[in-house]
Design goal:
The protein has 226 residues and is of the alpha/beta class. It contains 7 helices and 10 strands. The mean pLDDT is 94. 38% of the residues are buried. The structure holds adenosine-5'-diphosphate and magnesium ion (MG).
Length: 226
Amino acid sequence: MSFIEIHHLQKIYQKASVTVPAVNDISVDIQKGEFLAIVGKSGSGKSTLLNLLGGLDTPTAGEIRFNGENLFAEGKQGLVKHRRYRVGMVFQSFQLISSQTALENVELALAFGGISRAERKAKALALLEQVGLADRADHYPTELSGGEAQRVAIARALANDPDILLADEPTGNLDTHTGEMILALLQELNRQGRTVIMITHDPDMAKIAERTIRMQDGQLVDHRPT
Ligand SMILES: Nc1ncnc2c1ncn2[C@@H]1O[C@H](COP(=O)(O)OP(=O)(O)O)[C@@H](O)[C@H]1O
Ligand SMILES: [Mg+2]
């Protein structure tokens, strides 16, 4: 049994008379602690696949099993738990809440269960520290550079200590140097034992991954162990 097993996964979007098989019968296993890159042209289904892995969407057919458990078997409840405790997601556009400070953005992601206001704040600060951003805790997103905003988003993704980080073109809005720093941070988090699955259109970025899979028209066309 692999850590993550994607089994004949399919997601078909139906809009009026247009049918789009965004993910079209994908099967692949992902090992615990792996750093996997997903590459492919725009529209090839990469984000759809990652959103399914993140429990943001449900498939038309097929399964994703985590430790042997089908993610979609328990309905909405199971997906909420998955999103809160098992995966952290990072997006190209950061997706921070603009009316909240960096610290508040991280705090909001912390699970509520029996933790005091002061503890939450301390934990959020520790997470910002981990991404090297403790000195920007009181800044609002508009007061942050792109690289800083992405680090806040990564701190937020780590809030509940997930085993898996899913990143959808995390360096897509960043200059090369800043992108490399974000990539180094993801690598470090991977070295700490987290499984990282990252979409990128940049072959140089994909190089640092242990394995790259390529998508085309909703299918996997290339399994390259590196
Ligand atoms: N919510 C949606 N409704 C209808 N079609 C969608 C939706 N999301 C994505 N698609 C279509 O699915 C295909 C794959 O999209 P996407 O997964 O975003 O590709 P990528 O991330 O590789 O650029 C595209 O043709 C896109 O137009
Ligand atoms: Mg995409």
